[in-house]
Amino acid sequence: MRNLDEILAFNREFVEKHEYEKYQTTKFPDKRLVVLSCMDTRLVELLPKAMNIHNGDIKHVKSAGAIVSHPFGSIMRSILVAIYELNAEEVMVVGHYDCGMSAIDSKRTMEKMLERGVSAQTFSTLQHAGINLHKWLHGFDRVEESVKNSVDTIKNHPLLPPNVDVHGLLIDPATGRLDVVVNGYERTKDSE
């Protein structure tokens, strides 16, 4: 069975049996927290369990590598909406060890694009438009530095209220152990 067909068949039964009732909550995060994490499959259930997060507790934003690649991109917009419209008061950036973004080879990724039907002309057009695909596809060399960079991008954003604490953590995708990279409470205290 194809993925969409399987999902829709399951969903019909899910709705008919009222399984959704145990997940009902409001759109406002109970812990007043927005979490930016990596989209890694190992974190789908592990991250909430390791952080004692339940349905309705947080706003969860995901990107490859938990990277805020542009201060005015969709990731930062989502964080700001969570703060201004949905009552989040803190931000946590959660990267993880053994992240695939540390091994991204932009040249190899572009070769895969060609193999799957993206034309060389498209690459040329993007290059002439000033888009550096190698830079855009590049991940990072050290996950700790990447988390710090994302925290700094968020904390120094001109539209972020100064009283919002921004933390940076790393999770072990095998055990769920959390390591603090940036303690936002200490940063706030230092700036007072």
UniProtKB/TrEMBL annotation:
It catalyses: hydrogencarbonate + H(+) = CO2 + H2O. Zn(2+) binds at C38, D40, H96, C99. Its EC number is 4.2.1.1. This is carbonic anhydrase. Pfam families: Pro_CA. CDD domains: beta_CA_cladeD. InterPro entries: Carbonic_anhydrase, Carbonic_anhydrase_sf. Its cofactor is Zn(2+). Signal peptide: none annotated. GO terms for molecular function: carbonate dehydratase activity; zinc ion binding. Binds 1 zinc ion per subunit. The keyword Lyase applies. Keywords: Lyase, Metal-binding, Zinc. It comes from the Bacteria. Belongs to the beta-class carbonic anhydrase family.
